[in-house]
């Protein structure tokens, strides 16, 4: 009897960068050992990418959103559609990524009992030997990633368990969404993956990093680049939403001291590089997140 290939629904969100999206769909469509159903969500782009995408990838399903709903809202639209189609495995991946033809097969073959999410080792596209994320562990008191995505650590030889994986690329079992839900749309950009991973772990699922699966990422393309005003705003705002959501009363004093110290250090870093607009945006994000509780960029 011929063996049936596993089917994966790959959800890609586009926002005004259709060239990146088309390049991403290129490597997704060339995956071996699996059947890939491509779902493209356009997050309210000014330039409609559908004609160009349909020309090169006519079988891709296209979802057009009226406005930009951010990372969580964009991916949720694709996840909901994939679940409606009966998807058992859903792969969310940033559109500014590249990978070889074996990525998804390497990931899906590492699922075992109790594992809900697997992710690749992620490297910088501009420096392919420089590790950007291998997931990491969450400090049980401060609730923050405590090892900088493992960027300075050696990759393991075999898959290892993690407390969180980067939302840049995750292969997720359908039952995770059934039990945990989808991404929290209060996170427009950043920290939605940390929040999701915490919720997944609390439901008893395990997360694995698969070092043999390698993805290459062009960092911060959608937020204007590292330390831009927009990137600093959403990092600050989303961090406030995350900590307010997950911290318990006994953790509050330590987390508030930790976050205030972090804010001062970030201000000094940005000041050294004369990024005044980024400083203003950063503190505005903190104020809106901690005090207003509303995104008012």
CATH topology category name of the largest domain: Spore Coat Polysaccharide Biosynthesis Protein SpsA, Chain A
The total number of structural domains is: 2
Helix content: 25-40%
Order of helices and strands: EHEHEHEEHEEEEHHEHHH
Looking at the overall shape, the CATH architecture of the largest domain is Alpha-Beta Complex
Q: Give the CATH level 1 class of the largest domain.
A: Alpha Beta
What is the CA-based Rg, rounded? 19 Å
The total strand number stands at 10
Main beta-sheet annotation: 10 strands, mixed
From the helix content, strand content and strand pairing, which structural class follows? alpha/beta
Mean pLDDT: 94
How would you describe the shape?
Answer: globular
Termini separation: 57 Å
Which spans of ≥5 residues are poorly predicted at pLDDT below 50? none
Treating each run of at least 4 consecutive H or I residues as one helix, how many helices?
Answer: 9
Beta-strand share of residues: 15-25%
What does this protein structure show overall?
The chain has 2 domains: 7-217, Spore Coat Polysaccharide Biosynthesis Protein SpsA, Chain A, CATH 3.90.550.60; 229-292. The chain is built from 9 helices and 10 strands. It has helices at 18-29, 50-56, 70-84, 103-108, 174-180, 192-202, 229-246, 252-272, 276-292, and strands at residues 7-14, 35-43, 61-65, 89-93, 97-99, 115-124, 127-133, 160-162, 169-173, 206-217. Helix 8 packs antiparallel against helix 9. The model has no long low-confidence stretch (mean pLDDT 94).
